[in-house]
Each structure stands twice: as structure tokens, then as C-alpha cells.
Specification:
mainly beta, 1 helix, 39 strands, about 20% strand, 20-stranded parallel β-sheet, 19-stranded parallel β-sheet
């Protein structure tokens, strides 16, 4: 071959002999239709409004690739795009031998019908308004996955891992297939997914509001917030841990199943849950106001405040510690049982509490006015003010105890 197989720019490029094109390529102003002998583009490749129709022998683009509004229909021998790729409004229908996209992939409004041999997307993937009905051999999306308003994709097929956020809201996805891990947030709002299948971990928050998810399947861990409000979820399945807040308000959930820990706040107000089952720890605030909860089950610790206003709980069961305020006003709690410590204020006004049980310490203020408490029991410490109102009997008991 008389000429070098390396071209440093498009000015030196000739499809009849050039095998390597350095410094990227911007094709729109060139009238050739076939890349011919070209095998490698070192840098970005832009095909926007290009006359190029065939990629010929091209196997590698070591940069980003933009096929937006191009007439390229088949990627032919191309196996690797190391950067981002955009198929937005492109004519590409088949990804051919492409196995790896190293960066983000934009499939919005693309005509691609088959992802072919693609196994890995190294960045985020946007599938909104895309035409394909399955993900083919795709196994890993290392960034975010946006399935919003994709009206054809129903099955995630071989996809096992989404390292970033996954948005299924207003999508047609019904089956998560082999998906086992979502590393970020998961949004199921207005989706058609009913079962989470093999999914075991959601690394961020999980939003089930207005979704059709009924069964959490093999899901064991939600590392962020869990939103069950106005959802169809009835069974938490194998879920054991929620590492942030849990919102059960206006949910269909009747049992917490295997759930043992909520590290953040827990809102049970207006929920159908009656028994907290195996739950041992709520690390933040707990709201039982207007809830159906009657039994705290194995719950031992509430790390924030506890609101029992207008709840149906009568016995605190195994609960030993409330680290924040405790509000028993207009509640049905009658006996504090094993509770030993309230780390903030304790409000017994207009409550049904009669027996303070094992309670020894209130680190904040205590309000006994209009209460039905019969005796201060084992209470020895009130850290701030104490307000008895007309309960002169309790006031006399406290004064006598202080003077000992």
C-alpha cells in the first residue's frame, strides 16, 4: 500500500486505505457513504446529518459517538464505543456486534429494535420512547437507568445489575427478570411491575407510591427511604432492613413480616398494620397517630420521638427506650411496661396511662396534668420541669421522693 494506513484528520482520510483515524472525526460535511477500510477512530465520532450509511470495517471508537439524525442503519463490525453514545432520533436499527458502551447511552426516540450483543453500558442509559421490546444480552448498567414512558419494553431479560438509580415510573416494564441489584434509588410509581422477582438490594430509596407492586419477592434491603404510601404492597416478603425512613401511611401493608430494623423515621399513621412483628429497632422518630397498630411486637428501641396520639396501642410490650419525646395524649396506652427511659419530654395529659411500669428516667420535662396515672412507680429522674396541674397527689409523691 503506497500511503500510510494512519490519518491524523479527515483531511487525510481516504476510505480506500485508511485503517486508523486519529483525533476523532466529524463527518457531516463529507459526501462519502462508506467508511471502507477504517477500523479505529481514536477520539469522538460525530455522524449528525452525515451522508455515511455504512460503518464498514470500523470495530472501535475510543471516544464518544453521536448518531443523532444520521442515516446509519447498522453498526456492522463495531464492537466497542469507549465513551458516551447517542442514538436520539437516529436511523440505527441494529447494534450488530456492539458489546460495550463505556459511557452513557441515549436511546430516546431511537429506532433500534434489537440491542443485539450489547452486554455492558458503563454509564447511564435512557430508554424513554425507544422502540425495542427487550434488552437482549444486556447484563450491566453501571449508571442510572431511565425506563420512563417506554411503551414497548416489558421484560428486563438478562439484566442483573443497575449500579445507579432505576426509574420505572409510567413504563410498561412488567418483569424485572434477572435483576438482583439496584445501587441507587428505585422509582416504581405508576409502573406495571407487580413482583420484584430476584431483586435483593436497593441501594437508595424505594418509591412504591401509586405502583402495582404487591410482592417484594426476594428483596432484603432498602438502604434509603421506603415509600409505601398509597401503594398496593401488602407483603414485605423477605425485607429485613430499611436503613432510612419508612412511610407506611395509607398503605395496604398488614404485616411487617421479617423486617427487623428501620434506621430512620417510621410513619404508621393511617396504616393497616396491627403488629410490628419482628421489628426490634426504629432509629428515628415513630408516628403511631391514628394507626391500627395494637402490638409493638419485639420493638425495643425508638431512637427519636414517639407519637402515640389517638393510637390503639395499649401495651408497650418489649419497648425499653425512647430517646426523644414521648406523646401519650389521647392514646389508649395504659401500661408503660418495660420502658425505662424517655430521652426527651413525656406528655401524659388526657392519656389513659395508669401505670408507669419500669420507667425510671425522663430526661426532659414531664406533663401529668389531666392524667390518669395512679403512681409515679419507679420514676426517679426528671431532667427538666415537671407539671402536675391539679394532680396534687402525684406532686406530693414527687416532693417526698426528691427529699429522700
Amino acid at each position: 500500500m503506497a500511503k500510510s494506513v494512519v490519518a491524523f484528520s479527515l483531511n487525510e482520510f481516504d476510505p480506500t486505505y485508511t485503517r486508523v483515524l486519529l483525533n476523532g472525526a466529524f463527518f457531516p460535511s463529507y459526501d462519502f457513504t462508506d467508511l471502507g477500510t477504517l477500523e479505529l477512530i481514536q477520539g469522538d465520532a460525530v455522524f449528525v446529518y452525515s451522508s455515511v450509511k455504512s460503518l464498514g470495517n470500523l470495530t472501535t471508537i475510543n471516544g464518544s459517538a453521536d448518531f443523532e439524525k444520521s442515516i446509519v442503519e447498522n453498526l456492522d463490525k463495531l464492537t466497542t464505543i469507549s465513551g458516551n453514545v447517542s442514538f436520539f432520533n437516529s436511523q440505527v436499527k441494529d447494534l450488530g456486534n456492539l458489546t460495550t458502551i463505556g459511557g452513557d447511552a441515549n436511546f430516546i426516540r431511537s429506532k433500534i429494535q434489537n440491542l443485539g450483543n450489547l452486554t455492558t453500558i458503563g454509564g447511564s442509559a435512557e430508554f424513554s420512547y425507544a422502540d425495542f421490546s427487550n434488552l437482549g444480552k444486556l447484563e450491566v448498567i453501571r449508571g442510572n437507568a431511565d425506563f420512563r414512558e417506554n411503551f414497548y419494553l416489558k421484560d428486563l431479560g438478562n439484566l442483573t445489575t443497575i449500579n445507579g438509580n432505576a426509574d420505572f415510573s409510567v413504563s410498561q416494564v412488567e418483569d424485572l427478570g434477572n435483576l438482583t441489584e439496584i445501587g441507587g434509588d428505585a422509582d416504581f410509581r405508576d409502573s406495571k411491575i407487580q413482583n420484584l422477582g430476584n431483586l435483593t438490594t436497593i441501594g437508595g430509596s424505594a418509591n412504591f407510591r401509586d405502583s402495582q407492586v404487591k410482592d417484594l419477592g426476594n428483596l432484603t434491603t432498602i438502604l434509603g427511604n421506603a415509600y409505601f404510601r398509597d401503594s398496593q404492597v401488602k407483603d414485605l416478603g423477605n425485607l429485613t432492613t430499611i436503613l432510612d425512613n419508612a412511610y407506611f401511611r395509607d398503605s395496604q401493608i398488614e404485616s411487617l413480616g421479617n423486617l427487623t430494623e428501620i434506621s430512620g423515621d417510621a410513619d404508621f399513621s393511617d396504616s393497616k398494620i396491627q403488629n410490628l412483628g419482628n421489628l426490634t429497632t426504629i432509629g428515628g422518630n415513630s408516628v403511631f397517630r391514628n394507626s391500627q397498630v395494637e402490638d409493638l411486637g419485639n420493638l425495643t428501641t425508638i431512637g427519636g420521638y414517639a407519637n402515640f396520639v389517638r393510637s390503639k396501642i395499649q401495651d408497650l410490650g418489649s419497648l425499653t427506650t425512647i430517646d426523644g419525646d414521648a406523646n401519650f395524649r389521647n392514646s389508649q396506652v395504659e401500661n408503660l411496661g418495660n420502658l425505662t427511659t424517655i430521652g426527651g419530654d413525656a406528655d401524659f395529659r388526657d392519656s389513659q396511662v395508669k401505670d408507669l411500669g419500669n420507667l425510671t428516667t425522663i430526661l426532659g420535662s414531664a406533663y401529668f396534668r389531666d392524667s390518669q396515672i395512679e403512681s409515679l412507680g419507679n420514676l426517679t429522674t426528671i431532667g427538666l420541669g415537671v407539671y402536675f396541674g391539679e394532680r396534687t397527689d402525684l406532686e406530693a409523691e414527687w416532693e417526698k421522693r426528691k427529699n429522700k
